[in-house]
Specification:
This protein is of the alpha+beta class. 53% of the residues lie in helices and 23% in strands. The longest helix has 47 residues, at 149-195. The N and C termini lie far apart (74 Å).
């Protein structure tokens, strides 16, 4: 067989795969943004004291049995950021959003936005907590600690999630403006017909 034909077939298959991945990626992105909007809509503000934060497998996080039963088996070994916090008299285990995990102070009081067992927003209450958090990022010599590969990837993911959220808000505002313009145009046309 002619090598040009083989190369053409390979390139064609790669293009088809890339188009399919692009379409699936867009669908998953829209689905994720819809889920985030639902989570944020259901979030409630509460004060809590952060006891500990770790990145650990879900099966070791001591989440409620109902959550573990509903979770697919393939996700039970995946690692997620987990926060143990004292809310009122109760000590609860919460799954933290990757984007805010670095902002969660260890051993500090915070105001947090919680949706079920999902921690979606956090704000330190005391300046001492913020200073302590800054000191945790420095090593003994006063230089910034080196981040592990996972920490770098989580930070990059958080950055891209923030960019995506901003883009989605921009698109939503643009679509709303377009819809309002169309509505105004339609109203003007109706008004013109009524004037005649």
């Amino acid at each position: 067989m002619n090598p040009l034909i083989i190369i053409g077939i390979v390139i064609g298959v790669l293009l088809v795969v890339m188009v399919v991945l692009y379409i699936l990626g867009n669908k998953m992105q829209k689905k994720q943004m819809a889920q985030k909007e639902e989570i944020n809509a259901a979030a409630q503000q509460t004060s809590m004291f952060i006891i500990d934060k770790k990145i650990m497998p879900i099966k070791d996080a001591k989440l409620p049995k109902i959550v573990m039963d509903q979770m697919p088996k393939r996700y039970q070994k995946s690692k997620v950021p987990v926060v143990k916090a004292k809310v009122g008299p109760q000590v609860v285990t919460l799954i933290c959003d990757d984007a805010i995990y670095e902002d969660v102070p260890q051993h500090g009081e915070v105001k947090a936005m919680v949706s079920g067992i999902y921690l979606v927003g956090v704000k330190a209450l005391h300046k001492a907590t913020k200073k302590k958090q800054m000191q945790e990022t420095l090593d003994e010599n006063g230089k910034k600690k080196k981040k592990s590969f996972r920490e770098k990837m989580v930070a990059r993911q958080a950055k891209y999630q923030k960019q995506l959220a901003q883009e989605m808000e921009y698109r939503k505002a643009k679509d709303e403006a377009k819809a309002n313009k169309a509505k105004e145009k339609k109203q003007r046309e109706i008004d013109k017909k009524l004037m005649k």
